[in-house]
Every structure is written in C-alpha cells, then in structure tokens.
C-alpha cells in the first residue's frame, strides 16, 4: 500500500488552525542552507535541487534500481527553518534580504547515504553543480514543539505566531529560540494567497 503523508502523518502535517503541543521524532532529510530573499532565483534553485533529488529517490525503481526496504510513497512537502542575520534582528520591520534559512524535504526511512549519492549522480546536469554540492543528508530531531496551521499569506504569519505565543503563556510553555519551521502544504504557484496552508512550528520546553 502506498505511504501517503497526508493520511499517515496528519499530526505532523495537517494540524488544526489552533496551537497544539507535539513531540516530533527524528526523521531523515535532504537539506540545503541559504540566505536572502525567498523571491530570488537562488532560493528557487535550492528548492528545485531538493525536489530533483527527492524524486530521483522516488523514481529509482523505474531506473532499474530497487533500494532495500523500498516502498511506494508520496514525496514529502518542502520545509524551511527560518532565522535572521544579526543586522536583521535589530530591525523593527522584516527585511527579507536579511533572512537566513535551511530548506529540506523529508525522506523515507529506507534512504541511506549510499542512496543519497546515487540520487546526486542521477540528477546530474539537471541541477546547478554548486547547489548539488551543498545538499546534505541529515537526521534531525525537533523534539517538543508548538505548532499551528496558518491559512493565508506568508506575510500574515505573525497573526498565527501571536496565537502560538499566547498558547505558550497559558500553558506554562516557553519558546526555546526565535527560529521557526514552516511546512508548505500547498503550492504557492497554484494556490491563491488567502488559501495557502503552512504549518508553523517552533521548539518549546515546559516551565
């Protein structure tokens, strides 16, 4: 049976639009760091590199390569961990050119370092060499987090973050740092901004 994250991992990817506490287990990812405006060509190239590698893994059986433990699955959604550089943190208004990010796409448990290297060889010239060389294969454990589904424009995310901060205050929870994770459930190229669905999440600890 095909593994579909929308059905199997609802708690992780389809939370309600009210804040909740969640324990996020360790998972495998292809990751790629960057900085600057997410509307830039450099950002687009990084996203394309991660998707190219992820689909290379997904389509390996069609190339005659069947990884040990392979199963049919839907490619996981794009995610990003967002921060600001030192100058950006001093500003009262968000300067997108000061953003620092780490983009990633989760991989199934059967993916290994060997498969990662095989995927890199398969995408070859489809991806800029610089991007390809910077992609890493990592296991990441977020642990205890507060999350909430944000519905609407990326520019209105502060409204949802305010609800999440209020939830923390009412439940003796503290936010561990200013970084946050976004999981893009809808495709901004095909979805009106007011209908975009983005999981917002930050690391937390109980007081």
Automatic annotation (TrEMBL):
Q: Which Gene3D superfamilies match?
A: Regulatory factor, effector binding domain (3.20.80.10)
Q: Which SUPFAM superfamilies match?
A: Probable bacterial effector-binding domain
**Sequence ranges assigned to domain GyrI-like small molecule binding in this UniProt record:** 18-198
Name under which the protein is recorded: GyrI-like small molecule binding domain-containing protein
**What lineage is this protein's organism placed in?**
Bacteria, Bacillati, Bacillota, Bacilli, Bacillales
């Amino acid at each position: 049976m095909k593994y579909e994250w929308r059905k199997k991992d609802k708690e992780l990817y389809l939370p309600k639009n009210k804040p909740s506490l969640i324990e996020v287990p360790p998972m495998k990812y292809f990751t790629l760091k960057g900085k600057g405006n997410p509307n830039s060509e450099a950002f687009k190239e990084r996203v394309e590199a991660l998707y190219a590698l992820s689909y290379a893994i997904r389509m390996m059986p069609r190339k005659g390569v069947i990884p040990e433990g392979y199963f049919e699955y839907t490619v996981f959604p794009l995610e990003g961990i967002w921060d600001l550089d030192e100058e950006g943190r001093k500003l009262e208004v968000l300067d997108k050119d000061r953003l620092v990010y780490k983009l990633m796409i989760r991989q199934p448990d059967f993916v290994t370092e060997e498969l990662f290297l095989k995927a890199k060889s398969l995408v070859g010239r489809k991806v800029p060499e610089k991007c390809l060389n910077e992609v890493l294969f990592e296991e990441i454990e977020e642990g205890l987090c507060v999350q909430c589904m944000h519905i609407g424009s990326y520019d209105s995310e502060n409204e949802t973050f305010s609800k999440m901060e209020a939830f923390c205050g009412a439940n003796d929870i503290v936010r561990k740092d200013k970084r946050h994770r976004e999981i893009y459930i809808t495709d901004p190229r095909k979805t009106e901004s007011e209908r975009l669905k983005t999981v917002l999440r930050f690391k937390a600890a109980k007081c």
